[in-house]
């Protein structure tokens, strides 16, 4: 789906001022008053770990994602690690992971005692497909960690069906996809679990580290609630009853207040991201720069605006000279990183080629549309200059 470009957020062009890659101050300002009021209540009650604010956010987040339950945790990596353990995945098991993801996806698999099985991705979307998943399946494969990279879901209809046919557990790494949908269903609602990061720069970001797992499995939820709290089994004896090997990964009340306040703005902010992405798609020269493709049945939330270009590092330098900030996500595929190369069993050409060419353009909801045009025009100018 493509968003229409509107004019209500346009601001005068500021050609002399830098365009940052990311600026979260606007989102902070949107919620500051509500957050202060919520923090006053946390101060009054002293419920800093868990408590009413956490319970309220977990309920709101589950409802938003279209699941029955949400379990707040300390960060997105813990969300994956905890969920993988709760699903009974461990030593002797393989979990298929895309090679082009933030390292936390593979890291969580290893922390749970399992083995990451790296898969290649589609050249247009840079997402897993049923074909790339099947190519990585072995008799030891127990699960697939589907990463909704850059804020877009892959073909979840086909992937869900394939996992059912092969008897594979489906895990959604939705750290970059808060609010994204496939055929109207939100990220996190397709798999056995959906795992989210609320790092400050995410579409829904805390004022520090935070994360959550969503699911509609009541028994799995009970187990995850136990694991996140040192393995305590409240139903079997309370505070000093430790029925499973746990960890300390609890969402605190201070961050829950922030997340609840921001959640009320999330759909609006995501729409603003879509409008900015529409400008990039309209203006960026497709002959010189390849934007990540969008799938028709999905509606992405554009956590990142990623383009592939030749001479990526030089392009970055020239954009910086024009006052345009950029990022790189991700310059090294997981399967060739030092700690993870031992789990690779061959080249993954699409992920490797993309890693050398990917460039992330400015993308945040309070970026003005005029500045987005400046970014697109600046990129075109830089690429034309390098072609001469």
Which SSEs are present, and which pair or pack?
Elements: H1 25-45, H2 52-65, E1 69-73, H3 76-86, E2 94-98, H4 104-111, E3 115-119, H5 130-136, E4 141-147, H6 156-166, E5 169-173, E6 181-182, E7 185-186, E8 193-197, E9 211-215, H7 218-227, H8 253-263, H9 266-283, E10 290-291, E11 298-299, E12 305-308, H10 312-321, H11 349-355, E13 358-361, H12 369-387
Helix pairs in contact: 1-8, 2-8, 3-4, 9-12
Describe this structure in words.
It is a single chain. The chain has 388 residues and is an alpha/beta fold. Helix content is 38%, strand content 14%. The chain contains 12 helices and 13 strands. It has helices spanning 25-45, 52-65, 76-86, 104-111, 130-136, 156-166, 218-227, 253-263, 266-283, 312-321, 349-355, 369-387; strands at 69-73, 94-98, 115-119, 141-147, 169-173, 181-182, 185-186, 193-197, 211-215, 290-291, 298-299, 305-308, 358-361. The strands form 3 sheets. Strands 1-9-8-5-4-2-3 form a 7-stranded mixed β-sheet, sandwiched between helices. Strands 7-6-11 form a 3-stranded antiparallel β-sheet, with no helix packed on it. Strand 2, helix 4 and strand 3 (115-119) form a beta-alpha-beta unit. Helix 1 crosses helix 8 (253-263), helix 2 packs parallel to helix 8 (253-263) and helix 3 (76-86) packs parallel to helix 4 (104-111). The longest helix has 21 residues, at 25-45. The protein is globular and about 75 Å long.
